[in-house]
Amino acid sequence: MRKPTASIVDHFQELVDPRIERNKKHTLIDIIVLTICAVITGSETWEEIEDYGHYKEDWLKSFIALENGIPSHDTIRRLFIRLNPDELQRCFMSWIESVRDVIAGDVIAVDGKTLRRSGEQVSGKSPIHMVSAWAAGTGMILGQKKTDEKSNEITAIPALLELLKIKGCIVTIDAMGCQTEIGKTIRKKKADYVFALKGNQKNLHEDVKYFFHELDEKDLGEEWLDNHKTVDKDHGRIEIREYYQSNEIDWLPELKKNFAGAKTIGMVKATRIIGTKKSTECRYYISSLAMNAKRFAHAVRSHWSVENTLHWTLDMTFREDDSRMREGYSAENFAMMRRLALSLMKRDKNSKRSLKRRRRICHLDDAYLAQLLFSSDDAIDSRLPG
User: Fold this and answer.
1) Half-sphere exposure of residue 184, counting CA atoms within 13 Å on the CB side?
2) Class at the top of the CATH hierarchy for domain 97-316
3) Whole-model pTM over 0.70
4) For residue range 5-25, what is the model confidence (pLDDT) as tens digits?
């Protein structure tokens, strides 16, 4: 089978093998590719990966050697316990860069997720917390970084951003990431940011909140204020979102001093109506974006997709929260396998099928899985209707 530059196999060829030479009965690339295929098609444990390999051995041998057959689940487990997560990430990002076109204005949502069962109460091991960068437009994960056990997302986010090609993009982060150094990192990479404001920037949060709540109807026509409104109706529920953005920030010396390139402040007023019940919530933001409330609204709504799409998919489709992998680097490395599998399935731009259904089709149809692994994006053919 001819493999173009974007072949997933090609990009993992340079992965550094942590095993002792005399113990290498199976090549590293064979185990990695077997695992990727197994995870895409539904495997969630080491035993299930081995089972998949035995049933698909003839097909797998069409593009990997498997000179000594299918590795045992213990062999696979021991490799992933020892494999350097940074090396795995490097190969993952090499592939992502080969298939992703960076388009100015892309929204990259950065957010964290805890692998709930990766901890252990008896030993006192805390669950692993991963920070991911999610390209909202394409639905592809660009990279991930584990937070240190005695730290939090504040240190992991800059380290992750340094690895990414984000020039011309808009990086969105929740209130935890509203930090001076993170803003500097983003601007240094020639990207823009939209940061949520909460109590961790108490004075700035209170000032921005006061500013927007003092607005009245006559202000909507002023040149220093822009607004945009959306209304969504679904199953008896109405959601009204009003977006306000202002470049009137000279009165906020703390903002201009601490956040590189800050140009605007914003507010989202979200009103939800279900039957006779009505609730309203306001959220506040700072941004390096020029004033354009519609663009601001797009960035904010795109960020919410990291929770509603990425995290939901990892839990419901890949059952990430049920995984009990804890030894060595296994939890972190297998989290990368899930994110790689998700990004591969997202390459099928023509399909309207759910990810769960696509995963099932990959299990049934080797040719479709091969397209995701080896074809360029425009060559992937969703051969089934819907």
Assistant:
1) 6
2) alpha beta
3) yes
4) 457 788 898 899 999 887 789
